[in-house]
């Protein structure tokens, strides 16, 4: 596991998802064409690929309810590799965890989900990728989960049009909507769905 260093807590982008453009620079994520014309896959930078064991250990921490330790580890991993989509997704999910001492931090969750979603969008735009970017492909799964979390947060904050835009982007790149973003929004609007489940 990567050694932890003292660092300022990572707070994500508090401004959250921006619907147009979204700042300068590109994403360190790249795309590769899948065999058999099955679409495309997000390719993380080498530093992210080297952290798969660390992410597996974070999942174990979460299974044992060690949210604070998992949060510290994820923040450290992001200080080394900000493009680690799964770390952003997990931190977003942790931010939505509630108990008798703290409410869900929807703004923080939105920042993490939005940043991960935006990284994928930038990679797609930079490559002029027409899709598909299938959620069934393991390297694409975190982007689809980020979309679900982001849409949930936006809906809860009353930003329906932005939530719908996220859902439309997902359907553009995978019409099957593997993270069920559109169905989740329909359920929320029809009377409620529990907070995004951890893991």
UniProtKB/TrEMBL annotation:
It comes from the Bacteria. Residues 1-28 are annotated as: Disordered. Residues 1-17 have a biased composition (Basic residues). InterPro entries: TPR-like_helical_dom_sf (IPR011990). This is Tetratricopeptide repeat protein. It comes from Botrimarina mediterranea. The lineage of its organism: Bacteria, Pseudomonadati, Planctomycetota, Planctomycetia, Pirellulales.
């Amino acid at each position: 596991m990567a050694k932890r260093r003292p660092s300022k807590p990572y707070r994500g982008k508090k401004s959250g998802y921006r619907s147009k453009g979204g700042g300068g620079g590109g994403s360190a994520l790249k795309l590769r064409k899948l065999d058999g014309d099955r679409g495309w896959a997000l390719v993380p930078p080498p530093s992210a690929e080297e952290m798969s064991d660390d992410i597996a250990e974070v999942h174990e921490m979460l299974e044992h309810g060690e949210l604070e330790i998992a949060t510290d580890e994820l923040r450290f991993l992001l200080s080394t590799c900000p493009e680690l989509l799964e770390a952003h997704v997990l931190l977003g999910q942790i931010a939505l965890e509630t108990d008798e001492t703290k409410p869900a931090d929807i703004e923080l969750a939105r920042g993490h989900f939005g940043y991960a979603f935006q990284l994928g969008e930038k990679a797609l735009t930079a490559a002029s990728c027409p899709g598909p970017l299938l959620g069934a492909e393991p390297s694409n799964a975190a982007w689809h989960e980020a979309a679900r979390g982001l849409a949930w947060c936006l809906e809860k904050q009353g930003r329906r049009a932005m939530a719908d835009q996220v859902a439309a982007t997902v359907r553009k790149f995978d019409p099957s909507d593997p993270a069920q973003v559109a169905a989740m929004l329909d359920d929320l609007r029809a009377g409620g769905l529990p907070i995004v489940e951890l893991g």
